[in-house]
């Protein structure tokens, strides 16, 4: 600071000594005085006194006359002739020639003009040229110098305490850490492939750079190799950094204490960055993974004590931030959970059909409005989906013995999906009357349309799973009477699961939240990653934690989380929600007994190879006609007709399952396909009883709407090419007689729009072809 004041004083003195100075002061455009001397201006043959600054070159002549400007000092020694800004000129050396000035150099101006100056000797010229060239290339030279100094600093690393004092100071080797061949594309940070726990903690809080991706992945997956209490112990140990012992040279010079400059550098470049990054990890931990502390009050108490013990001005903001987050999380934990969310638009009103508010004892698939069934199931499944935490997925903990402790929210969603799928199957096969059963299937397809409108892919695939189950799959007489429009909707929904869910994934990436993704595909991908990659990598006789595997799992959980933030603009209807929360289709039956019951019931209502079905008494006393899926108070965007997934013609065929079993003896139900989220049994994920389980293969079971055996009776193929033959063309609207009363009821008009003309029953092929 003192040298800067001296330089400013020097420049002010020079400016006062120059008569005719105009423009900014020298101190405003220059920071340093370089040199001065006398040069001859070639051409004018006059001597000029030159003042050279880091940003300016001033040419003057001796002042012998009166002041040129009013107010100027008459004692000014020099008079200004010209000045050159150094950033706007180039310096060019001139060779000596006979008959011309010697020791000359040229100043080329920006406009192309030039001025030539000559020194009195070669030594003077060398001094001027050195100063001018240095100023011209100063920025480049400074960058080169900074780079060289940085490289030198890298080579002279900060001396750390020994590994016997600080376990995290152990040098990197192939026995404790392995890196990927590539680096992060934008930052160039190396990617950890595997390492010991100590090395992972070191990289988590590395002093040379911050790695947010590593922090996010580590906190999501660390429970698979480290307990929360152990992580807190390691972070506290990492924070307490002892000072390095002095080297032998230091001990000879200054005794047992390291020299102050090296110690200062150690604290600035190592201690402070490490401690700040430890606090940063703690902040991310409590912000995004507070469930660790909700489950362990002792862990939270220890963290609070550690944060309270942190001292230092640089740490104060971090400590305050972590403390505020903890207090906020505690308040949310204590307060009653509120489902009231403010939306830009008001949620649509509830839709009611036969059952009205308060009539929960009569709630059923056919008495509730299909729109409200779809809405309430979507809200319920959205809440289940959004409640799943990443820790419930890492390590496939939902398949382990202690799954109830580690994956409560995920298991709640899996059980709901299983119960709903089985309930839909039960509603279909326990409806004995054919007309009623057709109405039930049609109503389920309407609910599927509501799921499609609300982007509830989990609900869509629940319906598809129910339709693909063994008891429902074989009901050809029922599906024959389903309108072709609804059959097409069902076929398009099934196509979502084909080709490893290719269409589903494309659809998911194209829509805007809110949505409920199909959770089964995430579980499948996580299970494959967990089982297909080892937990540890063997290097030089040491087992290193396979962090690359954890990174892959974290990418899947990150995709799950990106759909957990946006809620639906819908209201919860308490009675309907409670009805679906308490679904128990199996009642007291075992899984096998229930599967046998459904299949036996399916054979009872539609016997194998039957030309005509047995007659059954109607089950429902209420009207079977659907209210449709158009809201009574429609507003833009409330319920659109779902956009078809594709417009390509698709062949849809229906047929019976071949009767390959003996007619006599007890009927045994085949293994029923599991629902999309059914977990594998505890014995093994590849058990043979898990037919159609999502954990066996991401490929969905073949659709009953694609192909059935061609050697069975009553086969009918539906396709766009043959629809003209099997389905009559739409009948033009009849003219109402003039004497007929005008029908102006909106509900009647709406019901006409929602109800397509009935498809004529197909003609059975008889006798059946030989098997």
UniProtKB/TrEMBL annotation:
GO terms for molecular function: guanyl-nucleotide exchange factor activity. One of its GO terms (biological process) is Ras protein signal transduction. Keywords: Guanine-nucleotide releasing factor. The keyword Cytoplasm does not apply. Residues 188-330 form the N-terminal Ras-GEF domain. Residues 757-771 have a biased composition (Pro residues). It comes from the Eukaryota. Pfam families: RasGEF (PF00617), RasGEF_N (PF00618), SOS1_NGEF_PH (PF22697). GO terms for cellular component: plasma membrane. Residues 624-771 are annotated as: Disordered. Residues 369-608 form the Ras-GEF domain. The keyword Calcium does not apply. This is Ras-GEF domain-containing protein.
